[in-house]
Design goal:
The chain is built from 15 helices and 25 strands. The strands form six sheets. It has a seven-stranded mixed beta sheet, covered by helices on one side. By secondary structure, the protein is of the alpha/beta class. α4 links the parallel β2 and β3. Bound molecules: adenosine-5'-triphosphate (ATP) and magnesium ion.
């Protein structure tokens, strides 16, 4: 399929690729990569990058996308993160096939290329410590100062560098630096470090190395070695591009990838920085990386977001160079759209009041046949029990109805969803004066089933469950994690202070249709009139049903903010 036929919106990067293809550049290949650092879990921003890169590989004929672990920092990386990243990419619907690589696969080549730079007089071993390097670097207005080692003879550099590899020197004694331009207007070009000494085991290479390459050096070589045609990254790397090209050229890489930058995804009311996310986990402000309030891919998954909803979201926000903040409601709208189409319907009561139908025969049970999805008979049907006692939600009753309240109140009628019309005859209160029970009559001439045809026009329809057959469930009502729209811009203490105290409300004894207990973990439902929910991935079982609210039926946040 050609690009224009598929037409997923020709953003500026696709336009560059199309032009390259027209000009026969890269022999007509499109090879991209997603290069996470395995030092945390993926978040919704990474999802944008995954969908875009793997999406390009899918859309262009013969396109390829690598999943490459950028494991150049042995101090912070972990196997656990790698497995989680693989799981998340697969779950989002993408497959790297045989193209799973690690920066550490290429350590020997990186090393050899560094020797080449030394031999060409383009790199030197520097003995300045971190603090001195910083003070020598200069500022935007002030040129840098050369290291006293800048003109160390080539042979001496080579000898020192080889001894660095052998482990003769402790951490921090030497670095290898590129010899570029200490007075460059671009500070990245002021003799950046290429290698640092770290006597630390690496989770893949063990103790083979005590010398680790810097990201700015390893990344372009890695791209070149894998034949990446378009190396797509976020805008903060724009100023690193001259350095990227410098390494590719001077290391005499055969293949020359092109770096292209786009703006990162920012979403309000949440944070997309691994460091801040880690602060939330380590400070126990959330249960873990997959807490359903986290903007991590595993958190969104546990919350009940679907892969399609996240892919659609990423497609919708598009790719550009403009820095924007996406409104959280857009993320929610996409999951609502998907679940409206695909989630099975169910009746659940969160805060039950018992309703006794005084004129309904005691001991009688009827089963109402209803569709699992009103527009999709192919999703099957089920039978819901009905008897003399049902539960409705406390919200659906008002003793003194306000104007426009069409649900139940004394003397008023309401229809039970898929069932009879009932009328409230009496309100029973407990010792504290709280409504304990409603005594109602039902109209046996009204119908039941998917669309009761009895000609009775009743303004209110309420959801309910049969009190004699329902089961109890825990329902976790999630809301936004932050009350501040821009928590990412706050420092650590301030952003913790902006956590939404109502981001999780646990309902311990919700009443559910009996069939719901058999729901598979991670299956999705619309609890009618309440929202979209999913059976919790970890805690749900038929003995102990647990559901998470993914999203409300409508955008209630905006309304609450206006009020
Ligand atoms: P963080 O800043 O949260 O630590 P990172 O950029 O260091 O994230 P990496 O693991 O290096 O995390 O990211 C892997 C890829 O995902 C990179 O190509 C990066 O550009 C991209 N990426 C990270 N965050 C976003 C974002 N918010 N929007 C789009 N792409 C992103
Ligand atoms: Mg990074």
């Amino acid at each position: 399929m050609s690009e224009t036929e598929k037409s997923p919106g020709v953003n500026f990067i696709r336009a560059i690729i199309n032009e390259d293809l027209e000009n026969g550049k890269n022999n007509g290949h499109v090879v991209v990569r997603f290069p996470p650092e395995p030092n945390g879990y993926l978040h919704i921003g990474h999802a944008k990058s995954i969908c875009f890169n793997f999406g390009l590989a899918q859309d262009y004929q013969g396109g390829e996308c690598y999943l490459r672990f950028d494991d150049t920092n042995p101090l912070k990386e972990d196997e656990e993160y790698q497995e989680a990243i693989k799981r998340d990419v697969h779950w989002l619907g993408f497959d790297w096939g045989p193209r799973l690589t690690h920066a550490s696969d290429y350590y020997e080549i990186f090393y050899q290329k560094a020797e080449l730079l030394i031999e060409k007089g383009l790199a030197y071993v520097c003995s300045l410590n971190a603090e001195q390097v910083r003070s020598h670097r200069g500022t935007l207005t002030e040129t840098g100062k050369a290291s006293p080692d800048r003109n160390r003879p080539m042979a001496e550099n080579l000898d020192l560098f080889r001894r660095m590899r052998k482990g003769e020197f402790p951490d921090g004694t030497y670095t290898l630096r590129a010899k570029i331009d200490m007075s460059s207007g671009n500070i990245n070009l002021r003799d950046p470090a290429i290698y640092r000494i770290r006597h630390t085991s690496h989770h893949r290479t063990g103790d083979a190395w005590c010398l680790y390459p810097m990201y700015d050096y390893a990344h372009p070589l890695n791209d070149a070695l894998e034949g990446i045609t378009h190396s797509i990254c976020t805008l903060e790397f724009q100023d690193h591009r001259p350095l990227y090209d410098w390494f590719v050229d001077n290391c005499e890489m055969e293949h020359k990838p092109q770096q292209i930058e786009f703006s990162r995804l920012n979403v309000n009311y949440t944070v997309t920085s691994k460091r801040k996310l880690r602060t939330l986990v380590e400070g126990k402000h959330v249960s873990d990386w997959d807490d359903p309030r986290m903007p991590t891919v595993c958190g969104l998954r546990r919350r009940g977001y679907t892969p399609a909803s996240l892919r659609n979201f990423c497609e919708r926000i598009g790719i550009s160079k403009k820095e924007t903040i996406i409104d959280y409601s857009i993320v929610e709208e996409e999951v609502r759209n998907d679940l409206n189409e695909n989630a099975l319907r169910s009746l659940v009561v969160l805060d039950p009041i018992k309703v006794v139908l005084t004129n309904y025969p005691e001991g009688q049970v009827e089963w109402f046949e209803v569709l699992n999805h009103p527009q999709k008979p192919e999703l099957g049907q089920r039978k819901i029990p009905f008897s003399r006692e049902v539960y409705i939600d406390r919200d659906d009753f008002l003793e003194t109805p306000t104007k426009g309240f069409f649900r139940l109140s004394p003397g008023k009628e309401v229809r039970l969803r898929y069932g009879f019309v009932i009328k409230c005859e009496e309100v029973i209160k407990d010792a504290q004066g709280h409504v304990a029970e409603l005594r109602c009559s039902y109209d046996p001439d009204t119908g039941h089933g998917q669309n009761p045809k009895d000609g009775r026009k009743v303004k209110g329809i309420v959801h309910w469950v049969d009190a004699n057959h329902c089961l109890s469930a825990e329902v976790r009502l999630y809301d936004r994690l932050f009350i501040d729209p821009a928590p990412g811009s706050l420092d650590d203490e301030q952003f913790i202070a902006q956590l939404n105290p109502n981001s999780l409300l646990v309902v311990k004894d919700a009443k559910i249709e009996p069939a719901l207990a058999n729901a598979a973990p991670e299956s999705h439902f619309q609890f009618e009139r309440l929202g979209y929910f999913c059976a919790d991935k970890e805690d749900h079982s038929s003995k102990n049903p647990v559901f998470n609210r993914t999203v409300t039926l409508r955008d209630t946040w905006a309304k609450a903010q206006d009020a």
